[in-house]
Amino acid sequence: MSAVFWKELADHLGSKRFVIFFFLILIVGGASTYLAAQALSGMQQASEFIYLRLFTVSGGGLPSFLGFLAFFGPLIGVVLGFDAVNSEFNRGTVSRVLAQPIYRDWWINGKFLAGITALSIAVASIILIIVGLGLYILGFPPDGTEISRTAMFFVISVVYLGFWLSLGILFSIVFRQTATSALASIAVWLFFTLFLYMLAGLIADQAAPVKPGVGADVFAKHESIRNLVLRFSPVALFEEATTAILIPSYRGLGIAALLQEVTIPTSPLPLGQSLLIVWPQLVGLVALTSVCFAISYIIFMRREIRAT
Amino acid sequence: MPVAEAKGLKKYYNGVKAVDGLDLVIEEGEIYGLLGPNGAGKTTTILILLGLTEPTAGEVRVLGHNPAREPLKVKRLTGYLPENLGFYDDLSARENLLYTAHLNRIPEREAKKRVDEVLEMVGLADVASRRVGAFSRGMKQRLGIADVLLKEPRFVILDEPTSGIDPEGAKQILDMIVRLRDERGMTILLSSHLLHQVQQICDRMGIIHQGKLVAQGTLGELGAVVESGEVFFEVRASRVDDALIDALRGIEGVTVAEREGDLIRVKATSDVRSQIARAVIQCGADLLELKGHTYTLEEIYLRYFQG
Questions:
Q1: Whose CA is closest to B271, among B248, B288, B259, B254?
Q2: Edge-to-edge strand list for the sheet holding B254-260
Q3: What is the ipTM of this complex?
Q4: Which of A252, B122, B213, B249 has CA atoms 20 to 30 A from the CA of A69?
Q5: Cβ separation of B103 and A95 shorter than 8 Å?
Q6: Which residues in chain B are contacts of A102 at CB distance < 8 A?
Q7: What are residue A296's phi and psi, to 5 degrees?
Q8: Would you call B82 and A99 a contact, using CB atoms and an 8 Å cutoff?
């Protein structure tokens, strides 16, 4: 399997599209972080967890780095995966490679692992560059909590991008044409990043209409239905999970949390407690990624290798 | 022990019979030509031999292993050149071969040595560092043969090795195949729809049509069958006994009548279906099925193989 892994990794890292997307995210991320740092240095009291705020604070009209990663990250994942298998079918390399003494699943596992590794390298280097930029602008190093939370952020991001990678691989197995699988991936991406948010609001409006004069319970119901629908989206799961990790005082979602905030002090939570809050989201993300890969695996193992 | 052996091989794709009861034996050190028109089941047979597709029914042994159960053992000893051969266009010829070597777990130093050797052998040594994307069809085909030889197989399967190649290039490839047998003692199975092109180099040939092996033997043997213009029938009767077989043998034009389970196979020089039916009824049995192969070998030969 290592032969497949190293070849695919070399292909990814050397491919033009990977380099293009890497620099796109790097430039956008760098710009938004720079602006965030500018905005932060203007504030007097914002010295707590300032490195984490580099990722979440937006400034100068640009969204935060977190927002960019949630929105554009899927594209990197999909781009690495959407032609993983069908392009090999189209080029006629499948039967030649599978005639070598390797098990069929080594091949697809190797491809997936190489994709994940390439994504990890990309995310890690972007985060490190941003922290370096912060170091340059702010002039003091991050503390232990910030480092551990940033590491956690890295892990969640890789799982999130891994979901999109496995979605791309799934489509590359289901669809024979690379163009079709690319379009299908982009359709799913748009659905989850844009339409599901509208849809969630729509469903919540229908189920629990919020009109003037209704009680707090209707508000709560409206909000919980909206969140329930959004939980199906990996984008929303990722945003929730990373918000809790990067904003230590974050205590959860929903109207209950909003109401309690008045009475409960907003002191930061330890990392373990933050993780506890978003544990369901994390499990959900990992599950989505695994299910997606498992489906690709099963379909691929049963696929006839005929070069048609 | 034969290098490859298949008995009663069947493969159905969604009810379509790609291979339908094929028997095949390939002996050590021979070049066996699997010949037939497109869609006859050649590639499917090859994929089953390699363990890339599981047969619906039948037994297969390749170098003593069952390819469906022990695909790795078979693939380690078998080289395969697919019909629509593809390489990674962005990589050079050498890099493509090195990848194959790595997949075969050949140690790095040995791999480099072997890659240079096989590139030299197929005459691509001076373009080894060029991107495969820039290669011509014939060069790719030769690179494919180098790719097959890399793992030093005992058994080589070549699917349509000369199709789409100009006569000069085809001759080079055929010469190379003969050298593999003579110099390296490899057993070779090659499939083709171009009988006239490969007939000179094949020790034995099998003609495959609609998933069945309709004739097998050396060129001379096949020629004799073709000239005799024989027709084949399958008879299924409610009761099969020696009297019936004798009666069938007595029909004018019938050369062979053999019992095979509850089936009788009849060879004749002309269409004798009505006589067969009468013979069965006269023997006191019911005729359950009478299948005539509507083609003769000659028809197949003329239609598909005279190019």
A1: B254
A2: B254-260, B263-268, B231-237, B287-292
A3: 0.82
A4: A252
A5: no
A6: 72, 75, 103
A7: -60, -45
A8: yes
Which is higher by pLDDT, B39 or A300?
A300
**Residue among A272, A292, A282 at smallest CA distance from A237:** A282
Which tokens in the block code for residue A196?
């599901």
Judged by CB atoms closer than 8 Å, whether chains meet at A304 and B53 is answered as: yes
Amino acid code (one letter) for A266: T
pLDDT tens for each residue of B74-130: 999 999 999 888 899 999 999 999 999 999 999 999 999 999 999 999 999 999 999
Q: Which residues of A touch B86 (CB under 8 A)?
A: 88, 91-94, 96
Residue the block writes with tokens 């998933």: B211
Q: Which tokens is B58 given? A: 């039948």
Query: What kind and span of H or E run contains B268?
Result: strand B263-268
Structure tokens at B226: 């073709």
Residue A99: list chain B partners with CB under 8 A. Answer: 50, 52, 75, 78-80, 82
Contact assignment for B88 to A93 by CB distance below 8 Å: yes
* Chain centroid offset of residue B98 CA: 29
What is the sign of the dihedral through the CA atoms of A120, A123, A129 and A130?
negative
Mean pLDDT is lowest, of A119-133, B99-113, B229-243, for B229-243
Smallest CA-to-CA distance from A29 within A151, A157, A115, A185 is with A157
Alpha helices in chain A (DSSP H): 2-14, 16-42, 50-56, 65-81, 86-91, 94-98, 104-138, 144-174, 178-190, 196-207, 216-230, 234-246, 254-260, 271-277, 279-302
Q: Rg of the Cα trace of chain B?
A: 23
Q: Which chain B residues touch A96 with a CB distance below 8 Å?
A: 80, 82, 85-87, 100, 144, 147
User: To probe the interface with B, which of A18, A98, A304 has the most B CB atoms within 10 Å?
Assistant: A98
